[in-house]
Amino acid sequence: MIYHMFGKITLSIIKPDAVKKGHSISILSKIVHAGFHIVALKMTELSKKSAIKFYKEHKEKSFFESLVEFMSSGPIISIILEKENAVRDFRILIGNTNPIDAEKGTIRNLYATSLEKNAIHGSDSNQNAFKECQFFFSSREIFLIEDIL
Ligand code: CMP
User: Domain range holding 132?
Assistant: First the structure.
């Protein structure tokens, strides 16, 4: 169902640190004001097993265990966003992975507190966006803009 949206969607996660601090609505508001359409959204929790699966590309990294622990430490909000050049534009909106280097006004500059607790995730390529969307959502949970309007 989302095959024809390849290149126009990205997967975001509002991470446990930002959800716990009550930043979810402010973050969602910034995303929508930046021109992204929410086409799927859910509040959920990653089990350790799911977090290991989601971050499998990082499994050899020194921070992997801590990342899995953190990402399964509380509720998250996973979102599919639709926009032209969604992956690139969303990564600009959220800012550098490390909040110290995130540009002023970006989501990580405003809400992240460390490289690990960096408030939000955005897919890093169209291929990964596609895989990550399928990780969190079934086709029945995705409502493309042209189907809604
Ligand atoms: P994100 O890009 O959303 O997904 C992978 C996460 O790993 C990344 O955000 C950071 O939160 C985390 N990460 C990346 N590099 C490091 C690092 N050097 N130390 C700790 N966490 C990291």
Answer: 3-138
Residues in the ligand 1 pocket, defined by CB under 6 Å: 63, 67, 97, 115-116, 118, 121
The atom number, within ligand 1, closest to the CA of 116 reads: 11
pLDDT in tens, 26-37: 999 999 999 999
> pTM for the complete prediction?
0.96
Amino acid at residue number 125: S
> Residue 88 belongs to a domain with what CATH number?
3.30.70.141
Our count of domains for the chain comes to: 1
- Spatial neighbors of 120 by CB under 8 A, at least 6 apart, are 12, 13, 14, 15, 18, 27, 94, 107, 108, 111, 112
Residue 121 Cα: closest atom of ligand 1? 3
How confident is the model over 105-134, as pLDDT tens digits? 999 999 999 999 999 999 999 999 999 999
Domain presence at residue 46: yes
Q: Encoding tokens for residue 88?
A: 């690139």
Query: Catalytic: 121?
Result: yes
